[in-house]
Amino acid sequence: MKLFAEKLQSIEMTNKTNAKIEALVSFFEQASDQDKLWAIALFTGKRPSRPVKTTLLREWCIEVAQIPEWLFLESYGATGDLGETLALVLPPNESQNEKSLHQWLSEIIELKSKPEDEKKDYVLASWNSLDDYQRLLFNKFIGGSFRIGVSKKTLVNALAKYADKDPNQIMHSLVGNWHPKETSFEDLISGAHINYDNSQPYPFCLAYALDKELDELGNPNEWQVEYKWDGIRGLVIKRNNEVFIWSRGEELVTNQFPELVEYFLTFPHDFVIDGEILAVKKEGVLLFNDLQKRLNRKNVSKKMMQEIPVGFFAYDLLEFQGENVTQQSMEERRKKLEVVLENRETDTVRLSEIIEFSEWNALYEIRENARNFNSEGLMLKRKSSVYHVGRKKGDWFKWKVDPLTIDAVMIYAQRGSGRRSSKYTDYTFAVQAEDKLVTIAKAYSGLTDKEITEISRWVTKNEIEKFGPVRTVKPELVFEIAFEGIGFSKRHKSGVALRFPRIKRWRRDKTVKDIDTIESVKALIQN
Known about the structure:
alpha+beta, DNA ligase i, domain 1, D-amino Acid Aminotransferase, Chain A, domain 1, CATH 2.40.50.140, seven-stranded mixed sheet, seven-stranded antiparallel sheet, 24% strand
């Protein structure tokens, strides 16, 4: 536990990925195999379920610290994190416990079935035997809220460096079905529970945002133009009668799309196809908000598949019958892709449409109309280009439609984290709904440091109520909010959800009387 806490502290003190990787490698070099397994489990979301209600933790902390409840709530409001508040409010520990990470987590798992008095004795004794930071980790373990700034990719790269293995193999192994109590560290990183050869992916070829005039790209005949879709970029891999689907985030998402797996298994050939996973119906592509309902589910019901069917728009062919074709030209790969999908296009799997044009000027109107059928804009790919690893400027460009915008008023503010913890950086915005305001979006990017400082001072002077770390403020500051897409949503009080909202500018020239109405916002969905 002590080693784990030391390395996490060093990770939290840096925003440099290489430094985080070095700290993780150092932990793996020194920790026991059981501690390594549990650390990996924590970082990948396999944390123990909460054995003690947070209300009890709060009550016990107030009792031990001998402070009034209002003071605890004020402290909680200042930190915005229960585990951190508990760790800071409690008196200094009187002893030091040397239990290992896996011992702590095993005990926490067993605690779930204990009576309340035994739980209290255990928690109080634990608090008294841990220093401030270890106590913070313990609180997050027992509160079921362990979240640290280590991405799965950073963890995978650290494990790959430590074990001298292929990062993609490590990634595949980690998303497999495993548990720290049922496997060994060596079996986990070697992928003993998977067949990696069949599922090994290729790195994605990525595009740059178009930063020049179309005429500067040269002859239009040298370019392939397609629609850009707002779904999940994915690689479909079919080898030896098995199908695997990798997302651009380097995660296996095969189980989330059983209808795609079932359909691709009917193909006679082996291949690797790059494309986009979208929510689709016969009438066309649905919004990303619809697709989102299908994501991150352990099991997808037949009802869900019927309500939100998914499809795959095929962009590119990377491998055919075991042959790597990434170094062939875009034009050659497209011809081979058309052969693979010949007479097999359905609502489930389609070839990405190539837009026919002879002059660059013709693309402007096509791009402007793209949002009418839920496209984000256009992709421009040089026909002679190979399938690069990552980005290579000059071969692939994305040309997105201009973002939608609305004017909204700020009604809530919350402090940031890290170096911004002293300022209000997270804001909630609202629009007019008859005689009241209704929340429409949260955003935290788009302002300068100077503007954030000014707004933070304003929030301090104009706060109305406190709800933990959140402050209700006077509805006076108006902002222009930009976003990529919009759709109806039953999950939000406003009835709509915005895609990638961010602050475009602070509208000092406007008052709350000038903000959009919920009707004008919903009208954007029709457009």
